[in-house]
Design brief:
There is one protein chain. This protein is mainly α. The chain has six helices and no strands. α2 runs antiparallel to α5, α2 runs parallel beside α6 (103-119) and α3 crosses α6 (103-119).
């Protein structure tokens, strides 16, 4: 990709709303999970499971819950799975901090992806 294309893509991505960035990231990560390019490891599965458990009462991905999960993952989470889960949690936190009407549906998609990540690899052949 020519340098000017990279610069244009980067510039355009910066001007997307937080909801648009999370929507795109969730779709990309779901594609990676479906295509086997991302197989969440033990750290990612554990953190996703803990976050989902914390949200079980009200189903909400709140900024404190997301930040706590990122903190628990520490620096290792930014390298594990090429930082995919860390990016998802960070972007979800940004959307949850300043909710807009369309945020609810994209956060629900993020929750569904977290559910898949939490159970990924739990049983051989479980890719749903």
């Amino acid at each position: 990709m020519p340098l000017e294309s990279v610069a244009t893509h980067t510039y355009a991505a910066r001007h997307l709303s937080a909801v648009e960035r999370l929507t795109a990231l969730t779709a990309d990560l779901a594609g990676d999970l479906d295509g086997g390019r991302w197989v969440p490891g033990p750290l990612e599965r554990t953190l996703a499971s803990r976050l989902l458990l914390a949200c079980a009462g009200d189903g909400q991905l709140t900024p404190p819950r997301l930040r706590e999960t990122l903190w628990e993952g520490s620096l290792a989470l930014t390298y594990t799975g090429e930082g995919r889960l860390a990016r998802l949690l960070t972007q979800s936190c940004e959307v949850a901090e300043e909710p807009v009407p369309e945020a609810e549906s994209v956060l629900a998609e993020a929750v569904r992806l977290l559910e898949r990540a939490a159970r990924s690899g739990a049983a051989d052949g479980d890719r749903h």
